[in-house]
Specification:
There is one protein chain. The protein is an alpha/beta fold. Helices cover 48% and strands 16% of the residues. It has two domains: 48 residues; 253 residues, 2-enoyl-CoA Hydratase, Chain A, domain 1 (Alpha-Beta Complex), CATH 3.90.226.10. Helix 3 packs across helix 11 and helix 4 crosses helix 13.
Length: 318
């Protein structure tokens, strides 16, 4: 059964907000004479669905960035909690500390053992601070390296969920070797002799995302984004003015549709009407089906062949 949520509205969703406001008003009224409240609600809901379909079919790149950042989108732990059974989280990088921005562990996907790595943003003030808004420090990427090493050792497929604005840019992170940690994590992805499927579920920001996304199959949700830099960061460099973020978003070709056309990703996962934040359960189900399909297509490949094909895939992009 579809999950019902009351979303917070983005700027371009004002017509939807008005219609849904009327629906809520009607639901608090009782039937009066010949007027059927249920019928009126149904008619308005049809209008809402049509408006959502119309608006979301015509989103600009900048609007897609806003949707990808929507706080109600399902996050890594939502996917892990639904799609992965018997999940056992593994903590720490065995060198410095535990990084809660990176979720990792072993579990079962459709009954088969897998290693899971993902970036978690959190869903309220407390959890966002705990997970550092999904921005990993070096120890997070070293934890990812450790998990990929376990995957290789025990011949377990790797599933990764990408959702970060980028790696944490703090002084401490730089002092502990942030760039080296990201580079080593990319190297670990390329060295895997087991299948790896990665899904961009929200934001795929710069090296912070690529560190766990150099996979055999890279999938993106329809309204997610994946880019070398954030639109705001790009605007501040090129125009010296963050207000040009919308122009930067258009120039960066960061949408799933753009990246599929450029052969950077392998598949776009269609989101429910009105995007993932309006129907989390159906979105998670669609992601699960896409992972299953793509994993089955590479699961029986010889490890050495798989590794070479993965390296060739990314060399070709260059």
């Amino acid at each position: 059964m579809a999950e019902t949520r009351v979303p917070s509205f983005l700027d371009f969703e004002k017509p939807i907000a008005e219609l849904e406001g009327k629906i809520e008003e009607l639901r608090h009224l009782s039937n009066d004479g010949g007027i059927s409240i249920a019928d009126e609600v149904e008619k308005l809901q049809v209008r809402v669905d049509k408006q959502l379909s119309y608006i979301y079919a015509r989103l600009s790149a900048w609007q897609k960035v806003q949707v990808a950042r929507h706080p109600d989108r399902p996050h890594c732990l939502d996917y892990v909690g639904t799609l992965i059974t018997d999940f056992v989280p593994l903590a720490g990088d065995r060198s410095y500390a535990e990084d809660h921005a990176v979720i990792g562990g072993i579990g079962r996907f459709e009954g088969n053992s897998v290693v899971v790595i993902g970036q978690e943003k959190g869903n309220d003030t407390e959890t966002r601070l705990k997970h550092n808004f999904g921005m990993a420090r070096p120890e997070g990427y070293r934890k990812a390296q450790r998990l990929m090493g376990l995957a290789n050792q025990f011949s377990l497929p790797v599933i990764s969920f990408v959702d970060t604005a980028g790696a944490y840019p703090g002084i401490g992170a730089e002092e502990r070797g942030q760039a080296e940690a990201i580079a080593r994590s990319i190297e670990c992805c390329l060295a895997l002799t087991v299948p790896m499927v990665s899904v961009v579920i929200g934001e795929g920001g710069s090296g912070g995302a690529i560190a766990i996304a150099v996979a055999d199959r890279v999938l993106m949700l329809e309204h997610s984004v994946y880019s070398v830099i954030s639109p705001e960061g790009c605007a501040s460099i090129l125009w010296r003015d963050g207000s040009h973020a919308a122009d930067a978003a258009n120039a960066l070709k960061l949408t799933a549709q753009d990246l599929l056309a450029l052969d950077i990703i392998d598949e776009v996962i269609v989101e429910p009407i009105g995007a993932a934040h309006r129907n989390r359960s159906d979105t998670i189900e669609a992601v699960g089906l896409a992972i299953s399909k793509n994993l089955k297509e590479v699961i029986n490949e010889d490890g050495t062949v798989l590794r070479q094909q993965r390296r060739d895939k990314y060399l070709k992009m260059g």
